[in-house]
Amino acid sequence: MPNLDAEALxxxxxxxxxxxxxxxxxxxxxxxxxxxxxxxxxxxxxxxxPLGAIDVSFYRDxxxxxxxxxxxxxxxxxxxxxxxxVIIVDDVLYTGRTTRAALNELFDFGRxxxxxxxxxxxxxxxxxxxxxxYCALTLTDPLPPTQNLQLERDEDxxxxxxxxxx
Amino acid sequence: MHNPQxxxxxxxxxxxxxxxxxxxxxxxxxxxxAPFTEVAEREVxxxxxxxxxxxxxxxxxNSTRTRTTFEIxxxxxxxxxVNLNVSTSSTAKGESLLDTVDNxxxxxxxxxxxRHAASGAPFLIAQHLYNTGRNDIHVVNAGDxxxxxxxxxxxxxxxxxxxxxxxxxxxxxIVGDVLHSRxxxxxxxxxxxxxxxxxxxxxxxxLLPTAMERMGVRVxxxxxxxxxxxxxxxxxxxxxxxxxxxxxxxxxxxxxxxGLTAEKLALAKPDAIVMHPGPMNRGVEIDSAxxxxxxxVILPQVTFGIAVRMAVMSMLAGQ
Lengths: 166, 319
Prior knowledge:
The structure holds two protein chains of two kinds.
Chain A: H1 6-17, E1 26-30, H2 33-44, E2 52-54, H3 63-66, E3 85-93, H4 97-107, E4 114-122, E5 134-138, E6 147-153, E7 159-165
Parallel strand pairs in A: 1-2, 1-3, 3-4, 4-5
Antiparallel strand pairs in A: 6-7
Helix pairs in contact in A: 1-2
Chain B: H1 23-36, E1 54-59, H2 65-76, E2 80-85, H3 97-105, E3 111-116, H4 121-131, E4 138-144, H5 150-164, E5 171-175, H6 182-193, E6 198-202, E7 218-220, H7 223-227, E8 232-235, H8 251-258, H9 262-265, E9 273-275, H10 288-291, H11 298-317
Parallel strand pairs in B: 1-2, 1-3, 3-4, 5-6, 5-8, 6-7, 8-9
Helix pairs in contact in B: 1-5, 1-11, 2-11, 5-6, 5-11
């Protein structure tokens, strides 16, 4: 298992993105881990468009089987999506279903000029044709479904990646 | 005891009444409603949650606002909505309530939103579905007789929480025709469950049910005394259409004694909010200056009502 230093990966991710962002670039973080990461990237990259937040609970494809997840939160898109270059930010890319839900939700706010995906870790196990344009770490051996990789945030704001047995 | 509103996992199966509904479920509905309020500001005011579900609005009693808000809520969740104005259809030809339900079940209904003049009608439907093993079909009570109007009670709680945050510090007054009001019963049940320390009921003796105190409220027959230092004033509509016999002199006299005017409202706390479930009778239970005034939150109630109904329907259909 490679070193999962979230802080270092976050800085690497920002450097990957830096040559490609413009003053028009808008970030949208997927709640909750993706939003923490997006807040960091927004500061590191000095972006001027306000940061967006998406909660995909109402767009998930497992609603029929699992119902509403507890405590859905607000989706807040404080900029005009119409014609904007958007980067969706998430902590961990796995099956791709969360990204799919976020894409669908984003398009209900308007037609963006382009959409890219930035993630801290690609853990493998994709079930949909989705890839990240920016990714700080790709695991060479995909994690088994019995394991959960997620971003956590300390009280002082430090980001940590945690591997849990699901 | 089997609570007909909850399934075996303790989740909401039907929404029939707020009486006896656990606090955690009421809070879950209010929490779920919050993110739905934002959908109205989007370019596309629609979520895909109930795609492919059929919701039947079964209104055995006339209603425009409640039916419309349920319809909008269901449509914003992408459900297919069928409105049945039952008072002018099969029932008029002699079909029984449960036969109507069975027929609609045969059309693959997923949810019934029911309004009925008879108290207990939605419960009867829920019981029938349970007895016939159709646990995948859900019932929402949209107002039954004098019994309950749970989504109105929930949207009122959402409104109070929005403006006042904490229920446990509040004094709330419910004013007017409590006797005929299913709204008042739902409000009282929810307010007490959510821990409001003082719920007051204000009205003439002829329009208050007997033994109200047993519901955990303080009764006032003097409006000025009852409004003193309250945080929330919940007005009720004078339900002339439900009155048999001489319970009241005239609407003008009712207004004189029980109408909410700026002068009476001044007795409440300066930041008190004024609520009304609609439709309002201006100049009967409320003065126009108050209804359109800075303390009135009557139109936000309507807007929040859509989000609350979206929350209820998506929690039910996702079980």
